[in-house]
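tool=predict chain=A
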Amino acid sequence: MGFKIYTKKGDSGETGLFGGKRLPKDHIRISAYGMIDELNAHIGHLRDYLKDEGQRQELLDIQKTLFDVGSHLASTPAMMDKLPVVDQSAISFLEQSIDQMEEELPAMTAFILPGGHPTVSLAHIARTVCRRAERETVALHHAEPIDTIHIQYLNRLSDYLFVLGRKIALDLGVEEIKWMGK
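tool=predict ok
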């Protein structure tokens, strides 16, 4: 038998970290890893719309790394050695993918507005949720220092999602919506 979905331990407004410590559900740590979970769901939604197997696989790999990031945020310091490592190689993976996509993209001459196609919009929604998760993780870091590799990863992931949105638009033959000001 696997994990039981309901434990009733959270009915009082608290939840447990990996390691046993209990925190109120509105604690900054819970909010930070909850936003990582939300981001992961948005990336899964985007992945479901993509036909390109390479892009689908990249997003699946990213989802796995996000689960690792979330596990670090959801754990007490004593449990960190039991968790998967998130290191510079995860960031390098994103940077290499960004560089490869940018080789095919036209140079940006203006800000790009989200939209133009539902799949492009999903990439931008994931990007903005990523930025929100990054802000919440930075706030956590200010309250309780964490490994900054997680902040760096989220920062680079939002860049990746922006470029992926542009690449999806190119692949679909959708004209990017440029913002030139008034």
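The mean pLDDT is 91. The helical segments are 28-49, 53-73, 88-104, 118-143, 149-172.
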